[in-house]
Hints:
The chain is α+β, with helices and mostly antiparallel strands. The chain contains six helices and 13 strands. The chain has helices at about 15-35, 40-115, 285-325, 335-340, 345, 355-364, and strands at about 120-130, 135-140, 150-155, 160-165, 170-175, 180-185, 195-200, 205, 210, 220-225, 235-245, 250-260, 265-270.
Amino acid sequence: MEIPPLFKQGASARVRVTVFALLSVVMLVVDARMHVLGTLRQALGTALYPFQTVAMIPRDAITNSSDYFSSMASLQRENHELRQQQIVNAQLMQQERLLAAENAQLRKLLDMQQKVPVKSIVGEILYDARDPFTRKIILNRGSQQGVTAGQPVIDEVGIVGQVTRVFPFTSEVTLLTDKDQAIPVQVLRNGLRSVAYGRGQTGALDLRFMPANADIQKGDVLVTSGIDGVYPPGLSVASVALVETRSADSFARIVCRPLAGIDRHRQLLILLVEKNLPPRPEPDVIDEKSAKLFKRRLRDSTRDNSADEANATPKDKATEERKGSADATAPAKPAAPAAAATPAAAATPAAPTGAKPAAKEPAR
């Protein structure tokens, strides 16, 4: 059977393999020795590059898609970590700001502690008092640290309040603006003394019972006078914010603003002031005698006044009767002497005629 021309084969496969193998060896040797195929290789690489790029598109697409999803996951994870780190950094920053403010406040208190001539300790505010109608705070210093009732509490500017109750490890401080708190002050400009009273929740102070013509101006600085023996003299208290005088009032209305940080700071300075006031003098014997003599004179003067009033009562009545009988008839006029008669004359028996009593009366 004759083979069709389409399926006719030339040389056998072994012959072709041998021929091509020998051709390859010859080309390798020629290229290695003479370098004549370098240009041909570059030309073929340039011609085949587009076909290589098209052939690599599926692989690049798969690689890029996997990289895209992996990069998205990593970015989300990194974003979450950065957000957490930002929150932590914000907290640390706030704490650092608070610590910086406390450090500055403590440095100012240290400077104030060196300026004040008395012994002092630093206390930290724990919380406010439970009563919302009072201005009180609780400090972390008590009797174990030498705190006693009545000691003043200051900051780097001036007076903040006064210790009112003491516990072993804590103490209660009544602020300067409490409605039941008072402090003796004097005007720094002219030395005028007065007493400043708190106004409660308004956060201001009043200078009560000051005359309308008192030498106080807006902007005057008030300092402690030191006459009470509790507050050291010269500590800043407040500045005058308002002065009102009215012609109808005897006293001026003076409102002051505290200079210290009443409700701004957390660390305060407690002055460990000891009350070394001299004892009150005992009453002398002369004073007791004077008091007895004064009481006796008062008693005698009271008796004399009562006696004078008793003696003056009939005369006043007679005078009123005379005034009342001015418009009456003539027979009613002799009634005034008869009414003015003494009790002895009243006890005398009545005469048959009116001339006999009239004769006895001049004899007196």
